[in-house]
Amino acid sequence: MLDAIIIGGGHNGLVCANYLAIAGKKVRVLERRNVVGGAAVTEEFHPGFRNSVAAYTVSLLNPKVINDLQLHQNGLKIVHRKVNNLWPHDNGDFLAFVVGSDNLKAEIARFSKTDADALDRYFRDTSMVADIIRDFLLETPPNVGGGIRDIFKAAKFGNRLRKLPIEDERIVLDIFTKSVSDFLDLYFENEYVKGAFAFDGIVGNYADTQTPGSAYVLMHHAFGEVNGEKGVWGHAIGGMGAITQAMAKSAMDKGVEIETDAAVKKVLVKDGKAYAVLLENGETLEAKVIVSNLNPSLLYNQLVDPKHLPDDFARRMKHYKNGSGTFRMNVALSELPKFTCLTQQERASAEHLTGGIIVGATCDYIDQAYRDSKQHGWSKAPIVEMLIPSTLDDTLAPEGQHVASLFCQQFDPDIDWDLHRETAADLIIEQIEKVAPGFKQSVLGRQVLSPLDLERIFGLTKGDIMHGNMSLDQMFSTRPLLGHGNYRSPIKGLYMCGAGTHPGGGVTGAPGHNAAREIIKDN
Would you give the distance in Å from CA 104 to the centre of its chain? Predict the structure, then answer.
């Protein structure tokens, strides 16, 4: 008999499978699609053009996971962006988050010397909180009702915070409670500088910059590192699928069985214990434990019969919050976009085009986009982050041509996207055309993924790239629900290893790592 069946071959499922196999467990991964990787896949979306079609950039992938799974030895290569981000402005100027603290200070000083002077304090404070978060990424949160072990774990967590000076305790409290706008007001005055930093507070977070808790979402995107360098972003050569293919190869080398085109219909429970899964094709597969890499709402509201769940748990899971307001496009381009804010020399070097290019430069812009989306379903002036990975990776497009990821925010997940998909996509293209004339004409083909498409294709409920809101009531010990923050479900033998558990969304591998540790403890 199998020791474990993992439902969903996304990156966390593959990570969990690897660690279970290292412990000598016999594991099978079941993936609904014809390729493993979940949302971290590279696919051809237009003849001759390949891209990371959903997840699209690297920073949060945990170094321990990379090392333990020997991902570099299994083909993974990550390169750095030459510029982290670029914000074109309506007045023809731009703000670039260039690499190197002195370079960044000089760039920000063009907008505000006061803000440039505040930069060291800002990075010192956010780095302090990021280090605290990093300490907990690979730990299982203390579980309410978990007994003496979890009481000690909670005390250990509290002691770490109590050792901080009072000023640092205030910063930690700010991060976990304040809006991203209020938090940034503590450091910066210029609207373009604040807007640039605020962007990370609404990525995958359907909210405005005034929403309490959005400061933590900013931090969630700040604790990453690439090739040992903290706080930077990179690109996996071959796209995000290179990460999950390396994970799959590592797992198969350890004896893990990976089965594609294997959609799970139900988790089967007998005498209070999960013992098998029923596939869509009618096949039943048994294992000692069942591990879900799915969004918790998908697991508990569709795959598990509610009669097997405690009433209050089932009731609350029906109201688990999903919806990141994300709309994704991939476009094939005949040439690089010609951003009017860049000089001819800057365009020729293409360095500024290796990072994220973000249309939506101020908090007011972001907030108006959110208000529009709540009223109309999408913004009249969408927030668009463009990434052109072919500037760093010539494997993705024909010579002289390019691919671009368009990662767009503030799109209501609850409207009829079958009806409005192309209208919104056209508007996104027009928005880029405003800052890069000729862009529309350079588009050779496009792949449009509304929140509904992200759900249908990748199982991202309501298009939620985080597997659930990263709000205070769905974080740490309360992710996905208080009393089950330790990767264990209310059903014996059924575990969770996906981004709907601590520490949440992003291509980190941490939930899969942590879940495997708990499964091994129990079995």
Answer: 25
- Backbone φ and ψ for 332, nearest 5 degrees, come out as -95, 130
Angle at 52 between CA 517 and CA 230, to 5 degrees: 55
The two structure tokens encoding residue 230: 């903290």
- Please tell me the distance from the alpha carbon of residue 46 to that of residue 27, in angstroms, as a whole number: 35
For 456-504, the pLDDT digits (tens) are 999 999 999 999 999 889 999 999 999 999 999 999 999 999 999 999 9
Burial category of 312 from C-beta neighbours within 10 Å (exposed 0-12, middle 13-18, buried 19 and up): exposed
pTM, two decimals, is: 0.94
Burial of 354 by CB count in 10 Å (0-12 exposed, 13-18 middle, 19+ buried)? buried
Please tell me the distance from the alpha carbon of residue 293 to that of residue 460, in angstroms, as a whole number.
11
Q: Residue 35 is which amino acid?
A: V
2-38+60-78+237-320+465-522: CATH, from 3.40.50.150, 2.60.40.730, 3.50.50.60, 3.40.50.12780: 3.50.50.60
Q: With CA atoms as reference, report the closest residue to 324 among 266, 411, 453.
A: 411
**What count of residues does the chain have?**
523
Looking at residue 149, its pLDDT comes to 59
